[in-house]
Amino acid sequence: MPITIDFFKKYFLTYTSDKVRYEHHTELALDNRDLESFIQKLTININAVSYADQYKKTINSFENLFDCSSFQAEHYFYNNALKVIKDLAIQNMVENRRISKREFLEKIDNKKLLFNEWFVALKGKKQFLAELRKEYFTTLNSSHFERFFLIEIDESNYLRSSLKELLFLISRKWSNLSRRAPIPFCPYVYIHNIPAL
In the chain, where does DSSP find H-type helix? Predict the structure, then answer.
């Protein structure tokens, strides 16, 4: 049985809360042509899998995709997925509501960023920076490879003297320009958002 516009308005778009009647189609300024266009694209499968089964299947998919526990799948990946979908759904332009599977999975898997934020909150910024130094900057000038440093400037608290000090430190610790070195090397530095003089 096809859904009529009146049936759709009455049973899907109208409700009462605290004795006040709400009509979504009126609030959204939708006319009958808009509703008819939507109804033509709407399919309702009364034999579809239950919500609980769909939810369980989604959690299992996250477990398999990210090789994680059901707790992580439910409380981390599923919540991230809902946020990504919500952010896309509120976009006005159709092209802004599209996303590839790869982009979607990348957006919901941001554990490293979350870990860094929680680590700073739990242990403090000083210890977090010490951990970063230990992980990335303990062995210096260990090989003749050229390295790339990408630095983003926060214009709200930018100090030219601090940047100069950082560049000097990078140059001193990550280059070897000695004539006695068999293969001299020095790093490449890219500075993003640096203010004009």
Answer: 5-12, 24-27, 32-41, 51-66, 70-72, 78-89, 101-108, 111-123, 125-136, 160-173
Taking only the tens place, the pLDDT of each residue in 26-45 is 888 888 998 999 899 888 88
Report the distance separating Cα 142 and Cα 138, nearest Å.
10
Q: Are 22 and 15 in contact (CB under 8 A)?
A: yes
User: What is the DSSP-derived secondary structure letter of residue 3?
Assistant: P
C-alpha–C-alpha distance, residues 81 and 61, integer Å = 12
CB-CB contact of 149 with 187 (8 Å): yes
**176: phi then psi, degrees, rounded to nearest 5:** -145, 105
As a whole number of angstroms, the distance between CA 192 and CA 195 comes to 9
* Claim: this prediction has a pTM higher than 0.70: no
| CB distance 46 to 31 below 8 Å | no
- Other Cβ atoms within 10 Å of 97 Cβ, number: 13
Percent of the chain topping pLDDT 70:
87
Residue 174: helix, strand or coil by DSSP?
coil
What are φ and ψ of residue 150, in 5° steps? -110, 120
Q: How far is CA 6 from CA 12, 14, 35, in A?
A: 10, 11, 10
